[in-house]
Design goal:
alpha+beta; 11 strands; eight-stranded antiparallel beta sheet; 33% helix; Jelly Rolls; three-stranded antiparallel beta sheet
């Protein structure tokens, strides 16, 4: 079986979907053997990607001293190479995050795509590198479901099932408010070693700290099509066919919304009779199969422009001059 098929260990994806997904966190020890985990991604591949400037600096973050820094911003002020800056910060205990790794590595792109298909949710992959005995991000929750693949080293993860203002399955628009969301106990700590996989539903508060060896792990985020997404898309579909839904919402100058409320309730009742999820699901399926809005590979624009230059811009002569006023 492929790496993507073994993210849930010995549990089938159907059983995972039915008993764990969006319900609770789960740890799948030794889902991969250690050498397989290293083969998924390792430090030498990251080193080579940085040295070859494969990953643009604005996709790399540095978490240092409680602050999240953009490598592009740090680099513009220092004039140093990306590798030199990262090495310098790592020596001082900083963690490194690479966002959207699937855009810059063919193997990770293949893994992300397979996860997207198997788990029927939009997927993207981030990389995290933490030096020995250093802490990562403080307690927080994510707005996507996450598979954590420990590729090398070990990391201690603390999961806080109880926290103030607990927010199960937050929306993508849910803001992170550290003053509002605070752990209410010491949480449960799980150590992930190379080959271990952990699943965190969105809204699960967690924090992590590296042990004696440097840790490299990947997070594969899942953004599923929710019931709310389907409903919103259906409203927009109705609006395409009904000009009144595209008109300005009118309310009284006094702020009275009685009439407007009655109007939208009438529309909801009317839509309830003919609403159909097929259109929303069909569009999402196209994305998951790579025919829609999936992330484009880095370099596509440069490749396009290079091809046009080599072709000698054949369409340029066909453009008519703009007439003078």
């Amino acid at each position: 079986m492929s790496v993507a098929q073994r993210l849930t260990g010995s549990l089938s994806i159907a059983d995972f979907n039915g008993g764990i997904r969006e319900r609770r966190f789960a740890c799948f020890k030794a889902a991969l053997v250690a050498n397989e985990a290293v083969a998924v991604y390792d430090r030498s591949r990251l080193d080579a990607a940085l040295a070859g400037a494969v990953i643009p600096p604005h996709f790399i973050d540095i978490y240092s001293g409680g602050q999240l820094l953009k490598l592009a911003d740090v680099q513009s002020k220092s004039g140093q190479s990306a590798t030199a800056l990262i090495v310098s910060h790592v020596r001082q205990g900083a963690s490194i995050r690479v966002r959207e790794l699937q855009m810059f590595d063919a193997g990770i792109a293949e893994l992300t795509s397979e996860v997207q298909h198997l788990f029927e949710a939009r997927a993207q992959t981030n990389l995290y590198l933490t030096p020995p005995s250093a802490g990562g991000f403080p307690p927080h929750f994510d707005i996507t479901d996450v598979f954590i693949i420990q590729c090398s080293g070990a990391k201690a993860w603390t999961v806080f099932e109880r926290y103030a203002g607990r927010k199960p399955l937050p929306l993508m628009e849910t803001p992170w408010e550290p003053a509002r969301y605070k752990p209410q106990d010491g949480g449960e700590t799980i150590v992930l070693s190379a080959g271990d996989v952990m699943y965190l539903p969105r809204g699960t508060m967690h924090a992590a700290a590296c042990l004696e060896q440097a840790s490299l792990h990947l997070t594969i985020s899942l953004t599923p099509l929710t019931l709310a997404d389907v409903m919103v898309r259906e409203v927009k579909r109705f609006a395409e066919d009904d000009a009144q839904l595209r008109a300005r919402a009118v309310w009284a100058e006094s702020g009275d919304t009685t009439g407007l409320t009655a109007q939208i309730r009438r529309y909801f009742r009317a839509m309830a009779e003919t609403a159909d999820a097929r259109d929303a699901v069909s569009r999402e399926r196209e994305v998951l199969l790579g025919k829609g809005e999936a992330s484009a590979a880095a370099g596509a624009l440069v490749e396009c422009l290079t091809e046009l230059e080599h072709e000698g811009a054949p369409h340029a002569a066909q453009v008519s001059p703009v007439p003078k006023a």
